[in-house]
Amino acid sequence: MPRHLIFSYLSLIIAAAAMREGNFRMREGAPFKIALFADLHFGEDAWTEWGPIQDFNSMGVMSIVLDDEQPDFVVYLGDVITANNIMIANASLYWDQALSPTRARGIPWSTIFGNHDDAPFEWPLDWFSQAGIPQLSCARGSDCSFRGTTRLELMRNEIERNSLSFSTDGPRNLWPSVSNYVLKLSSTSNARDPVALMYFLDSGGGSYPEIISNAQVKWFQEKSREINPHSRVPEIIFWHIPSKAYEKVAIGVQCVGSIFWESVAAQEAEMGMMKALEKRDSVKAVFVGHNHGLDWCCPHRKMWLCFARHTGYGGYGNWARGARVLEIKQQPFSLRSWIRMEDGSTHSEVILSS
């Protein structure tokens, strides 16, 4: 068997074993690197020539980042697909395509939902003009359908079909919110010795309001007290739509980034999540997507609030594509970040653990 196939097979076995425990480990003598892919928007304008070309270009961006950075883990930070443009019954086919560059390289990943991932189909107005509805070709193994695919269906399809996925569909009592879970990064020497805890939350949108609910806040408080009662382990937070706190820090002079071209499009309301985070000295940073024209990190209280970088060619805006990269070191703990661009360049390096 060729070496690269042996490596991929071993990666699958190791990832599956780690996933059963909800954690993974640092590599000996190396930092742990995470790539964030935000706002890919696969399936957008799927009935046009433009749409599939954008998906192809997005695959190229991810491939460049993965090959240049060679991360240990990937986070899909929401708006993986543009469900409101997808005509087929099973949108998981587009979701799976977005995961394929990471899966092909044997890299484990996790996903969270954005506001477009289960949005209902939006009928284009020009379909009702003189030109009429175009000849639709649903050539992805599924009949044309406009009912959409639910969050729960998307997540379960991902988990069942991919042994490298660390995603979960979260506690049932948080419904309609789905992608809520925590993963543990353990030390090289001891799987029970955590280096960092990563919390993933569903910030809503699409089929329900853009919000992190009070029930999710209570879940975070209970879970963090359970697994990190003395706040000794650094905590890193991921969700898609920025909280209202992002609006307040956006004018800060200490912000680090390269594009500041739009106002923060925040969640509809604040139900206590930021207050819960602010009470924990262990929280180092929050990472979001959603705003394609922002890629900054700004200090807020004792933590940092960061945007990723628009990775996909789908979605609005013509800014150059790229991805935010995180690097975690164990002793002493440090969290460093930068942006890797499609052209191979890097910029906006910042230390987030100070």
Word description of this protein:
The chain has 354 residues and is α/β, with parallel strands linked by helices. It has a single domain (3-351), classed as Purple Acid Phosphatase, chain A, domain 2 (4-Layer Sandwich). It is 25% helix and 20% strand. It has helices at 3-21, 50-69, 92-104, 151-161, 214-227, 245-249, 273-278; strands spanning 23-25, 32-37, 73-76, 109-111, 181-186, 194-200, 235-238, 283-288, 297-300, 303-307, 322-329, 334-341, 346-351. The mean pLDDT is 90.
Question: Would you spell out the secondary-structure blueprint of this structure?
Answer:
Layout: H1 3-21, E1 23-25, E2 32-37, H2 50-69, E3 73-76, H3 92-104, E4 109-111, H4 151-161, E5 181-186, E6 194-200, H5 214-227, E7 235-238, H6 245-249, H7 273-278, E8 283-288, E9 297-300, E10 303-307, E11 322-329, E12 334-341, E13 346-351
Parallel strand pairs: 1-5, 2-3, 3-4, 6-7, 7-8, 8-10
Antiparallel strand pairs: 2-11, 5-6, 9-10, 11-12, 12-13
